[in-house]
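seq as requested:
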Amino acid sequence: MKKRRTLFLGLGLIGLSAILHLIHLLIFKDLHHLVIYLWGDIAFIPLEVFFVTFVLDKFIEKREKDQLKEKANMMVGLFYQELGSTLLTMLSRYDGTLDQKKTEVQANWNEEDYDGLNKYLTAQKLSLNLEKADYAPFRLKIEEKLTLIMNMLTNQALHEHELFTESLMSVFHLLEELNQREGRALSDQDRSHLKVDMERVYRNLAAGWVHYLVYLKEAYPYLYASAIRINPFMQA
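struct tokens:
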């Protein structure tokens, strides 16, 4: 049906153009100039197609991508403000190998400094000692923000943000595992399974936190100052 309407619209526009040219010919009776202008317009069509397809469309596409990226970054920031930074703080308290001197972020850091922090956190593998861990606060904190997590998982703007989507999925999965074990004594197998899930969340959130800081420093310096002051790796 839509294709048929498009066809009729095209034929109608062509017919209207023919009628207008006929009226022009009847009024001015100058076929020579009419043909000159008509062929001039036809000759310009390839240029119009080029500018619309390869210039204007690319410009619009880039602007849309930039807007989508900005929206995604804002949502990442919201997540860390509402949940991510808190979870990182809670998890880092079980990381006995963490060197706080290497995770202390300065206000005047440049790209190389952030790369160094990211490499350090990656190399550390962020292993957690959870033998005496209390899992209830993690479950309650995630459940408190479950609506936020679900809304973000279904948001189109975040579908191409693979690292953040993986972080959300790992947090959601951790909540599922914690809920399944709520109210019963944990076996060694349970603790081993939860350790894997919590370390996955820890690694994903840590990597995303570095990217989040870089974005804040460029876009919102006043929020950046607050973020490095409450550095989740420095709260243990």
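The chain has a mean pLDDT of 84.
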